[in-house]
Amino acid sequence: MATFMIGLVILVVGGLIYGRFCERVFGPDDRETPAYAKQDGVDFVPMPTWKNALINLLNIAGTGPILGPIQGILFGPIALLTIPIGNVIGGAVHDYFAGMICTRDGGAQMPEMVKKYTNGTVFWIYDAFVCLLLLLVGTVFIYTPGDITATQVFGFDGKASSASTWIIYSLIFVYYLIATVFPIDKIIGRVYPIFGAILVFSAVGVFAAMAIFHYPLVNVWEPWNTSAFQYGDYFKTQHFVPIFFVTVACGILSGFHSTQTALIARTIKSEHDGRMTFYNMMIVEGFIAMVWAAGTMVLIQLGVDKGGIVMQMGKNGAFAYFQQVNGALKQISATSVVGVVCMRTLGPIGGAIALIGVIVLPITSGDTALRALRLTIADTFHIKQDNSARRLGLAAPIFGLVFLILIWSKVDSNGFQLLWRYFAWSNQTMALFALAAATIYLLINGKGKFAWMTLIPGMFYTVVCGSYILNAKIGFHLPWNAAYVGGIILAFLYAGAVLLRGRKKTS
Q1: CA-to-CA distance for 329 and 462, rounded, in angstroms?
Q2: What is the pTM for the complete model shown?
Q3: Where are the domains of the chain?
Q4: Could you say which of 41, 48, 107, 430 would form a disulfide bridge with 34 (CB–CB 3.0 to 4.6 Å)?
């Protein structure tokens, strides 16, 4: 537990100090925000700080900070330190500057922001990239909560041939359509406090159980190979960089977040609300990621009899989680691990409430992802969205594509796995665009001496994303040595291009 508490101190204290530093560098002032300057009662709506912060947290906290850390903890206790450090100097910085620059630029969405600070070519690449990612996010976050609801709540088989599966999908689909088309404050703003309470309860409840019952956690200074699982061997053989960072994703840094902070840029009342709304909510997500990583390690260390799960080699030759069912071990998904963690730490009632949270989390990300997609397309092609008919007219083809992808991913046996892999990598890659734009913003606004704050995370994640796709079977399938060299070269090319663009913009 000591390593976890050290990580928590890093997260909280580091977040307080570095968050204030980020705020001082950006320099928020008392100018009128887009929520007032462009108020339209639909997208530009002044909302209270607490509600903006909560909505932003739920927008960015899908299943990523839960399912990612459940897999990432296999790298050992180093995960409990890497998550908070990366969160403070990477993810929260990314979210803060993306949100604040969009606010300062009149509530611009991310493609507009990227275009302004890079160039037209990068803009079109990013625009296509972000639209594809948001489309995949919307699809994934119908599939995931739909299947969890079908199989774990109602006990259905969740198969593509079952009518119950498509009825549940359709209900989520209809909710997404309503949240995408109608005013944000009337739909999302009213229901999110309920979702937020469930989210907070889940994380705080698991954390409290670990603290009260002194559940076993491996510390970084202790042997990493235990009788329950050989974390040390896994760390040495599974390539911590880049696999850990791509796996944990949203708990450290996520490009998807910038699309969501851009939405909130249109509803904050004051620029001074930015640190609480953007930076601090990412710190909260870091806490959620740490809790679920630690909670999973607890169950692994307790053993299959007391903890309910064990990690061992699966049928496909990769490590997988197994649950003891009627005396026999059954391979389960990371989503099912969430249910085991909830039930073992919070009891039947608390576990059931937490499970509802796991269903709600992806829904709260999926609805705003599709709404952001509608706004992005509208802003790019200057399509007016001043009434429900026009918003519905643009939403219709978007939801048509989502439905087609959903059918393919459900009917094809490998469809969802392929969909998720591309989503995970592209999520990290998208952050490079926002970090590049933020670096150039600092350079052209007389803050060049602080450009390292966004440039260094951008370079590091270029190595992560570059080496991952160069090695991956769904990428270029190069050996690791070549992939690492390629990733480093790409990082320096990235830095050179960003600095050169910043110099041109200032001249």
Answers
A1: 40
A2: 0.89
A3: 2-408+415-506
A4: 107
